Amino acid sequence: MKQKKITVLHGPNLNLLGTRQPEIYGADTLDDVNNRLREAALLAGWEVVCFQSNHEGALIDAIHAARLDGTHAIIINPAAYTHTSVAILDALNAFEGTVFEVHISNVHKRESFRHHSYVSLRADGVIAGLGTHGYRAALDAIIKSEDAS
Ligand code: DQA
Questions:
Q1: pLDDT digits over 53-97, tens only?
Q2: Residue of 10, 72, 81, 103 marked catalytic
Q3: This prediction's pTM
Q4: From residue 113, how far is each of 80, 82, 109 by CA, in Å?
């Protein structure tokens, strides 16, 4: 049987994870996060594919690709595009699977411009403030609900 697939998308500046404002975003690098997700998924019989971009259009193209490549669910940290991008919301609205939005920091505890998320209008689940563990929490929730259905 073909492995079930989750696409993990990271927005702008998340390539700097581990060195960018570690007091907010922690010490894990993006490779640490992605490797842990791949390993956890594999143990559960799932495949995780990860992609990071600093460009809005590249993230939109990745969401379009996920519509066609057998992706069951998208975990997305749109980073700053969370608060600005109707285009990413529109792309996610065209994706039929599950969508989880993850923020490493608790955006609601921060500047008011971070309190609004366009992506939350589409997200089936939203996780904020759990550090990089938030990605793993999203992965576990998706796998649990999809494997139960
Ligand atoms: C973030 C929060 C956003 O407000 C910010 O622009 C980011 C990261 C987070 O993971 O906490 O780049 O999405």
A1: 999 999 999 999 999 999 999 999 999 999 999 999 999 999 999
A2: 103
A3: 0.97
A4: 10, 10, 11
